[in-house]
Amino acid sequence: MDVERNINILLIEDNHDYARLIHRIISKKSSNLMEVEHHETFSKGFERLLQGEIDLVLLDLELPDSSNIDKIVQIHCSTDVPIVVLTGTDDEQVAIKAVQMGAQDYLMKSSLDSSLLVRSIRYAIERKKVDDQLKRTEERFRLLIENAVDLIAILDIDGTITFVSPSHKRLLGYDDKELLGRKAFEFIHPEDLPTVVEIFSKGIQHIGDENYDLDMSYSAEFRFRHKYGYWVTLESFGKLYPPNSGETGIIVNSRDVTERKKMEESLRNLSVTDDLTNLYNRRGFMSFAEHHIKTADRKKQRMMLILIDLDDLKKINDAFGHKEGDMALIDTADVINSTFRKSDLIARVSGDEFVVLTSDTKQNAIEAIRMRLLKNIEAHNSKQKRLYKLSLSFGIAVYEPENPSSIDRLIIEADELMYMDKHKKDELAEGIVVNMGGGGQ
Predict the structure, then answer these.
(1) Residues of the chain with pLDDT > 70: what percent?
(2) What is the pLDDT of residues 125-149, one digit of tens each?
(3) 435 band by pLDDT with thresholds 50, 70 and 90
(4) Sign of the four-CA dihedral 56, 61, 63, 67
(5) What string of DSSP letters covers 154-189?
(6) How far apart are CA 119 and CA 29, in angstroms?
(7) Which is more confidently placed, 261 or 178?
(8) pTM of the full structure
(9) Residue 208 region, left (φ>0) first, then alpha (ψ -120 to 50), else beta?
């Protein structure tokens, strides 16, 4: 069991009678855990303070060798020792100003009692510890924001920029004063603006909603005008302030994806897209997938590969013609696009097979993806009046950075799980046919 060490108190007080009173109170009420060292002038007391091993200063504000508030500032700027001021005047404004200048507490000499003095000393020491911890935390967050690679901004409910991280200067060229107070929409490319405004409007509808999902974020990819006139492509994720935070607005984290967009365009020029669905083809997928896996390894980030098969494409072609079969493939691409994020890698890798590589691996992500796919398929079938119902089978393989695996291996794992899914459907369909036929042979 740790033994509580003594609290060393430096009393700077020119009145010897009052100093002896302080000594008696502390020795009687503190169970010998507080020791008082007395100096009658500020200059001697301050010299002793600088030598160290002092836990708290009891400071008389009416010392003859120093003006009132100046000595508090001098102590506060020179050490991190908490201060409790003693004042013989009844001017409470002076005492309050002392606290504002750095003292932890103040005591009126005329109304001082033993319990109040000891309690104030302990309170001042503990409050100083809390203040120091808060300052360390604030400094840590300040350093994180100042050195963040990504852009961090806070927008008011009308899109006014109220805070920007220093990275805006490095990536976009703007000083704080050139952004603060202006609408973020002023800087967005006119072609991208309607989409961004729509997403922003959906987000602010939930401000003040206590049932709002705090994990919900809104993402958008758009072009932002650099100070020197060219466009930078940003990928942004916005989250609302929690309803009980006392603040309103949206916190936006953005990253510069201009080079990624250029690489995507370059790969498109190398015929990496599927002409029918406008998704990547196998060549494009494999090129991008390696880049995503390397990024996941560097960030120690899990990923998922989802292999999706359009059920009964041959039957659709045979029954309704290849034109209708092409429409089924296009519909499938639309369903998949609506299920996953823009930042996810989506491709058609063969006649009826699609693949997705995503970093969306939050808790229960596999079940969440499964439910989103099924929900979107059902929504499509209820909306589109086709001659057939769209049906997809899929398998999901997880990539773990601690246990690296090649893209080909992930595809094989997902393929096995996909065919298990397809086999279950076939068994179910066969059971329904047998049941409708009266039990079979």
Answers:
(1) 85
(2) 888 888 777 777 667 766 666 666 6
(3) very low
(4) positive
(5) EE-TTSBEEEE-THHHHHH---HHHHTTSBGGGGB-
(6) 10
(7) 178
(8) 0.43
(9) left
CA gap 214, 46 in Å, rounded: 51
User: Cβ neighbours of residue 141 under 8 Å, at least 6 residues apart?
Assistant: none
Q: Provide the pLDDT confidence category of residue 121 given band limits of 50, 70 and 90.
A: confident
> Is CATH 3.30.450.20 the classification given to domain 151-256?
yes
Using pLDDT thresholds of 50, 70 and 90, give the confidence band for residue 393: very high
* Mean pLDDT in residue range 294-309: 89
Q: In the 8-state DSSP scheme, what is residue 4? A: P
Backbone angles phi, psi at 344, to 5 degrees: -80, 150
Q: Distances from the Cα of 191 to the Cαs of 88, 131, 159, 187, 413, in angstroms?
A: 70, 49, 18, 12, 41
Name the residue type at position 386: R
Q: For residue range 408-419, what is the model confidence (pLDDT) as tens digits?
A: 999 999 999 999
Give the other-Cβ count within 10 Å of 155's Cβ. 21
Token code pair at residue 8: 């060393």
Tell me, what amino acid is at 160?
Answer: T
Phi and psi torsions of 132, nearest 5°: -65, -40
Q: What is the mean pLDDT of residues 230-242?
A: 89
Residue 123 has pLDDT above 50, yes or no: yes
Determine the pLDDT at residue 439: 37
Q: The tokens 């990024």 sit on which residue?
A: 295
Domain ranges within the chain, ordered by starting residue = 7-144, 151-256, 260-436
- DSSP annotation string for 35-68: EEEEESSHHHHHHHHHTS---EEEEETT-TTS-H
Indicate whether 338 pLDDT > 50: yes
CATH class of 260-436: alpha beta
CA distance 208 to 386: 42
DSSP lists the bridge partners of residue 234 as 222, 256
Per-residue pLDDT at 160: 94
Please give the radius of gyration of the chain, using alpha carbons only, rounded to the nearest integer: 34
CA–CA separation, 142 and 313 (whole Å): 56
DSSP for 257-291 reads: -HHHHHHHHHHHHTT-B-TTT-SB-HHHHHHHHHH
Q: Does domain 7-144 have CATH number 3.40.50.300?
A: no
Q: How would you classify the pairing of strands 56-60 and 83-87? A: parallel
